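Work Package 3 (structural annotation) set out to generate three-dimensional models for the target panel prioritized at the project kickoff. During this period the team completed the workflow that converts sequence records into discrete structure tokens, so that structures can be stored uniformly alongside our sequence database. As a representative example, we reproduce one entry of 113 residues exactly as it appears in the project archive.
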Amino acid sequence: MVQTFDCLMRAKAEGGETVLGSQELETHTCYLIYGILEPGQKGRQLNPGPGHEEIFCVVAGVVTLIGPEGSQNIKLGEAFYLKGDVTYILENNQKMPAVYIAAGGHSEGGHEH
């Protein structure tokens, strides 16, 4: 049987976001982020960091992504890509919770742990 992880419960216990990474997966190659934004919640910082890349996908609700280019709504089923030391902010301006997942890994020739 494969090992499973209760991302929902972990995210709730860890302030709205959890990362399945090297500790659980015993690899530095990839990781998974699971995040919940409650209605009206603002200020969730997204920053892959030097040598990392992340693909985010909204799996419930609608979020507002705020970055250097301005803001845009990202809806259920839409994804976006961030690379390196960039900072974006996620907000939930809706009346329902929003959930996102992100698959992350190391950039080619990137960062070492």
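The chain has a mean pLDDT of 93.
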